[in-house]
């Protein structure tokens, strides 16, 4: 009788242990680990670099456009290009800032927008270049703007191509494709204006 009770208790303990293991296994199978519960960003270092560099790049293009739009005697076709650049690039800046916030990447506009901080960035104008644009007038401001903005756009296109080669986030890649298409088209239009 004692033997029967002992083996019965042993069988009961074994079945309880197995049931516990089974429930643990099924729990881990049906429930993802805590770290994968939150959606993960697909952005990699190349995406972050493109966005953090393109924001001040766009900001400078808007600054250049503002100078031309405020100047007297500018060719209306040049003013139209400046207005087009400004209208296209501000919404893109807003979009990129929202991505950095979503990714938890700190962005310091004071440091990023300074011309000395990004003097080596493709197409960025120096403080002297901007001063020359501000002091020019009439046809000179239009011609200088076109020359500077062509170089500025070429830099942005190169940066966008790098993002397409190395980036991972679909939103960033879509923006990079748009930058290549839009700014290549604007470069052609500006070259045509300069040739007149």
From TrEMBL:
InterPro entries: DUF305_CopM-like, Ferritin-like. Residues 1-19 form the signal peptide. Keywords: Signal. Residues 47-194 form the DUF305 domain. Residues 22-43 are annotated as: Disordered. Pfam families: DUF305. It comes from the Bacteria. PANTHER family: SLL0788 PROTEIN. This is Uncharacterized protein (DUF305 family).
């Amino acid at each position: 009788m004692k033997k029967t009770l002992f083996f019965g208790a042993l069988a009961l303990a074994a079945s309880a242990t197995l049931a516990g293991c089974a429930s643990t296994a099924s729990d881990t199978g049906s429930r993802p680990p805590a770290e994968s519960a939150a959606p993960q960003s697909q952005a990699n270092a190349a995406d972050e670099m493109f966005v953090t560099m393109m924001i001040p790049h766009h900001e400078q293009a808007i600054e250049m456009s503002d100078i031309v739009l405020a100047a007297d005697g500018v060719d209306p076709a040049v003013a139209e290009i400046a207005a087009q650049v400004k209208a296209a690039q501000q919404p893109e800046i807003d979009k990129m800032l929202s991505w950095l916030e979503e990714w938890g990447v700190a962005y310091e506009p004071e440091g990023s927008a300074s011309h000395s901080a990004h003097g080596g960035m493709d197409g960025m104008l120096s403080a002297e270049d901007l001063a020359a644009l501000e002091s020019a007038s009439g046809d000179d401001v239009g011609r200088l703007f076109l020359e500077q903005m062509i170089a500025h756009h070429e830099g942005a296109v190169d940066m966008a191509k790098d993002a397409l080669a190395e980036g991972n986030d679909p939103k960033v890649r879509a923006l990079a494709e748009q930058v290549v298409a839009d700014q290549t088209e604007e470069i052609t239009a500006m070259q045509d204006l300069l040739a007149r």
